[in-house]
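Hey, resending since the last one bounced:
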Amino acid sequence: MQGVRRTSTNPVSDVAGRLAGDGAVLMLDSYGTVLACTPGVGELLGARGADLIGRPFADFLAAGSDRGVVPRDGRAMLRRSGGPAVKVRLELLPLGGDLGAQFLVWAVPEAVAAGREQDQALVRALFGQTAIGLVLHDPDLRIVRSNHPPVAVGLPADAGAGPSGAALDEVLVPEDAEAIEEELRRVAQTGVPATDRVLRARYRKAPEQERVISLSALRLEDGDGRCTGVAVLFSDVTERHQEQRRQALVDGAEKLLLGSLDIVATAEGLAGVLVPEYADLAAIDLAEAALLGEEPGEFWLGAPLRRVAVAGAWPAELLPVGALVRVRDPEREPVYRRRAVAVSDLSELRAALADDAERRRQVLPDAATSLLMMPLRAREQLLGAAVLLRCGARARFDRDDAALGTQVGARAGISLDNARRYTRERRTAEILQRSLLPQADTQVSAAEAAGTYVPAGTATGIGGTWFDVIPLSSCRVAFVVGDVVGHGVEAAAAMGRLRTAVQTLSDMDLPPEELLTHLDDLVTRLSQAERAAPVPPAGRRPGSVLGSTCVYAVYDPITGLCTIASAGHPPPVLSAPGQPACFAQVKAGPSLGVGGLPFESVEQAMEPGTLCAFYTDTLLAHREEGTEERLRQFRDQVQAAAREDRSPARIGHAVLRHLLPQAPEYEVTLLIARLHTLPAGSTAAWEFPATPEAVGRARDAVTIQLTAWQLEELVFTTELLVSELVTNSIRYAGGPVGLRLIRDQALICEVSDPSQTQPRLRRALVTDEGGRGLFLVAQLSQRWGSRYTHHGKTIWAEQPLPAC
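The structure tokens again:
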């Protein structure tokens, strides 16, 4: 068989493998006659195998070929029955011995042989280079073969040469090896390939050097589908991973700008960004002034920093959250520089702090191997510092880490400074808001009341709500709760304007619906002026009063009537003793300044001890529960608290504890009032015709009543007041004339007539014969005024009671 390529491989194992593949095998004697063949020969030549037995192999060569010679490269053309010639590769396997069979000829189609050569070339190329790692593992995941020399990874020269090769944990750091083995075991068990899995793979011989690989793995199987191992392709992506991590850290610090504007929450977010990607432990220390929203200013000896956040498995020996960190020497402290400082070797620092236990607790736990101090600066102000620590086998901080820390600290400093300024604005708005509100508790004869203001958790929810309890003439009292559109300092200032306006209008003793009408006109004028004003350079207009809401209620403890009107505000809850709580049946008019329907009031009789709860609709805002459900809960809570006969302040706190378990998103105002009536015998009333004799009769009635009240000291002045007021009513208004005395914390004298002409105090000239009556009334009383009624007007005057 001249010219057929000969091999020296083991014929038994080689033939067994080839029979399972594509192609055909022929058994020849020493003359080249076919003694036997596999079924593949018939498929290759298009003939039955039995027809080929006993024929010379040369007969199968295509026409034109040298029938006695096979090319030395093994390439030949074989004739195919009923079809074109087939290009094949031939390989001769000598058998030897005394048997008649001397050779085996393996014939493979050219395309199949070329594909196998390409596969072999690919395998040789993979194992012949080191840019792309290739490792073969046996079913026990031990390394069988690798294109990396064993000595390159710290193993003996013969390691990994066969089934007794090294395990992964002999090559890699144990925790990294465990993660990779888990991935390979999953591939071996399921057969599902792993693609581009990014894992740490630090060598045992250099655990401090960071090494990250991108790994792909697939299961190897034999002909019966049994797992024979796992093939792994990997590439070193350490630099790319570090760059991505650095960018992620910078992006994470920038994203803090989009998060919470609470400075502590921002610090906690920064600590979360730094651990575990950048450090094992992190502590954020901020200046006390920054936490209060103030400018930190220059640091001096002993200036305190507050530890506001930590991340990682924080050691017990280090200062916890809330502890104070004192500045020793700002000139020498590395944190007060403009750049982050990395300390990769802590031996000198440990020696320097050996006798300073306090300082060691600040920065140096026992497990730390390297340290990085990151200043947190913004607008040339040092807000604080981040203390970062790495422990164990992790790569130590170096100059590149310090440069990255400087970038992260600069961006985080901007976020912290925004939160600081936000904190200052929030505190300013809250302080202004609280300063504009009245005292929480109010005690008058008509009622005892307590207002509660709950600031929002953010500055965007502060500013705009208010409550008020305003004493009116004749022992009456007004209850007010309102809400201004907007937030912040501007809304708080706008609220102050509206509250002042309500107090001024209430002094005119207007009915609730008329007061809201005047307030609505005022809001309309103010909003028009706001729209006409130029926009400030900062682009922010003052807080708008347009669209504000208000509820105004007037209670008379003598008649027991309460008159309520609303401008877009929810109705109060009323809880009378022994009766179920309900909402007042008041029809809410439009919000202030919006216009539309007129305001309407409702008059309700109140039993002594009735509890009234006025509130802002922010109390009903809840993300999970609907408004109807919150209204029901609020009503039930008011009723339950009223049954326990607590003070209004305690009732308000109990209701808020139930409805507001956490800081609300928007500020909430709640006003609780318990209504009273004046004791029996505290009032006396008469009605006189418009005749001159009525003045004398009025004086006599006053004298008798004051004597009965043992207020003889006030008889003379009260007679003068009554004489002037009754005389004026008879002269200018006609009759009938009503007279009422009220004994409360002061003595109140009221004269009513059917005229709606308000009296005016004026200075009478020397030549005038009259005009001095009201001047005399003003001199004899501590307060006086007049108010409209449904049937005319009432002029009243108060005198202090004599000291006991």
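The chain is about 30% helix and 25% strand.

Sorry for the duplicate.
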